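tool_log.txt
---
The assistant was asked to compare two proteins side by side. It first ran the structure predictor on the initial sequence, then on the second. Raw inputs and outputs are pasted verbatim so the downstream comparison step can read them without reformatting.
(1)
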Amino acid sequence: MTIEKLQAHHGFTKMPFRRDLAPGMLHRHGAHAEAAARIAWCISEHAPGVITGEAGAGKTAALRAALASPGPSRHTLICLGNPSAGVRGINHAIVAAPGGVPQTHHATLTPQAMDLLAREHAERGRIPVLAIDEAHMPEPAQPEAVRMLTNHDPDATCPPACLLTGQPTLRRPIKPGILAAPGQRIAVRHTMPGMTGEETASYISHHLKLAGRSGPLSSDDAITLTHATSRGLPTAASNLAIQALIAAYAGRKATVGEPSARTAATEATADRPPSRHHEHQGPAGTLPAGPFHAPTSPPAMTPPSSS
């Protein structure tokens, strides 16, 4: 099987469910729109926020969407995806993101990072956005480093917006003596739920149209099974849909029916490790109870309409 033959069989001009889509082409279901709105509020207010969700819930996609509006030129994004990088790793990333040369010694690197954050807004008019992924597994000193960065200068008009993203365990206190102070400064805590059944169907249809498919491809039974197996998580739904497309092609089926979807689901569940993150997640638009709620919440917002 070649990619070209698979595309031709299903009427695609390119493979669906690509990860290099422009932010404006992302599917805006309810959980995505709500998380993007919360992130955008944190950025506009230069406030710390925590966005949690199971792996594949769409946290990174929501961040990309929030940064793209009103325009990426207004932000300097500093991403840290390695939870073991430590305080030095955070400061190194801050200095390197806009093209700086990090100092060798920690004693000079920390003030260099703080000064760069201040200059980024004062001289270039950009909001520094520090995004720390996998924050549910922090080094012991990382939360305190985040607190210092967001509280560097009490008179500063533009502290960095700091976004911590991670799996649902990020909502739980690990060591109160370490996390209490940073937690008290968190302005937004939001957990991303999975998509609804209707949203999963819309999500699959959206990506098939982007790939050039002009008509429906999956049966209702196949989509229902994909939603149940993926639990509405976009990444899992994408992977299952791709495997179902391959199974349908192998069976020379014109459409993806329930048998093809079941083949994909069987393979996926056989390889899936037991999940450790089955916490209850409230509906989109709610702020779940957590150990470190901020004393105030952001103003009510109307998320972007789904498309």
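(2)
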Amino acid sequence: MKTLETQKRLAIRRNRKESGYTLLEYAAGAALLMGVLYVGLRAVGGSLEGLMTSIANFANRRATELDTKAPD
């Protein structure tokens, strides 16, 4: 026969709410997010490559212009 104290402890343990996420839940969320990002970036990969190339070309042209205008 269980004592009253043991029954109280069991009742408290059953009523205790679990809060927070476990490491497995964080890992699953991160994996899902990475999958979505991968698919999205693959879909627009060519466009991004062109955009980055354009930005790099612009930066190189500006750097060249600034170098030629620099005072001696």
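---
observation on (2): The chain has three helices and no strands. The two ends are 96 Å apart (CA to CA).
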